[in-house]
Structure formats: C-alpha cells, structure tokens
Amino acid sequence: MATRKTGAARRTAPQRIYQLLVRLADIEPAIWRRLWVPDTVTLAKLDRVIQAAMGWTNSHLHAFHIQGRRYGVRNDEWGLDGDLLEDKQFRLADVLGREVQQFEYVYDFGDDWMHQVVIEKVLQPQEDVNTWPMCVAGANACPPEDVGGTPGYMDFLHAMRDPQHEEHGAMWLWWGGPFDPNGFDLNAANLALRRLR
Predict the structure, then answer these.
(1) What is the pTM of this model?
(2) Distance CA 51, CA 158 (A)
(3) pLDDT per position as a tens digit, 64-73
(4) How far is 188 from 135, CA to CA, in rounded Å?
(5) Which of 14, 25, 57, 187 is the most exposed place for a label (fewest CB within 10 A)?
(6) Where in the sequence of the chain do the CATH 3.10.290.30 domains occur?
C-alpha cells in the first residue's frame, strides 16, 4: 500500500534503482526512453524526469495510474480531483516497491499522450554511477507539443514529408523548419535531466 513519505525518508540513500522503459503508446516506430531512477524520487520528480527524457516541455497536466490509484497535481477548485493523490507526497519506493511491474503515465489531457512504463529491472545503487535519474537509451523524436495527440501527429508527419501537401507550408512554419521523427539525442536528454538536479 502506498504511504506518504516522511522527512527522514526524504534524506535516505536509495535502496533500489528502477530501470524503466517509458514508451509512448499507439505510435510506430516506437518512441521510447530507458531510464534509471532511484527509488527515493517522488512521483512529481518522476514526472519531470519523464518530461526531460522524452522531450516534452511540461506545459500541461499529467497523471500516473499505478495499481488502481491516480497520482498527479491536485487543484480542488476544479472539482475533478476527488480520487487524485498528490504526486509530490509519494516516493517511487512507496508506490512501486517490488510488486509493480508496469504502470501508465498520461501527459496533456487534451492531446492525451499515454506512456506505458515497464519496470525492466531493479538495480543495486552504486554511488557515483546510478544514484540520480538518467537516460541510458532511447529512440525517435518526441512529438511536438499541442500537435493534436496521436492522430494530429500522424497528420503533421504526413504534411511535413510531402512538399505538395496542402498543409506542408503551414506545418513547416508552425514547427519552424524541418522535423526529424527519427531524431533522438541521448546526450541532450541527459543534459536536460542534469538541469533538474
């Protein structure tokens, strides 16, 4: 059962490093990142880690769906968060433990980017090697923000690839030039992650 973190728990050294495979659902070829994340980070921090590694700009809401519970940023003024638990109150160790094998992360409730997150391995922490969040592998570029979810992204790619497409010029201008859907830079992903530390 997930429990809230305590002040003392925040200061403890990691006991486990989760190797997570984060894959954007419903898109082929797959857009994915392999991450090493200490069990001491909160779900709120994991949101920022996924954002940085994938290439999102963190400009929309998100939610984690883990073992029948929802975690995210509460805003009781909206009246929609009755079952939503505040993600900054829960560490990975609290919600994943050793039992959870996979969960979902949703970003941008308009575009509805669903990420499948699989716990591939649980590693031993090695100080100076893996006790901070990092991206160790990945493939393909993150879709542009506000492109319209998976269908909008497919339309965007089609228009960008075909100079004769009626939306080619508009998409080129909107994006600001060419777009390489195969582009992924491991160094850039880790630079973005280092900025979070």
Answers:
(1) 0.91
(2) 25
(3) 999 999 999 9
(4) 10
(5) 187
(6) 7-141+182-194
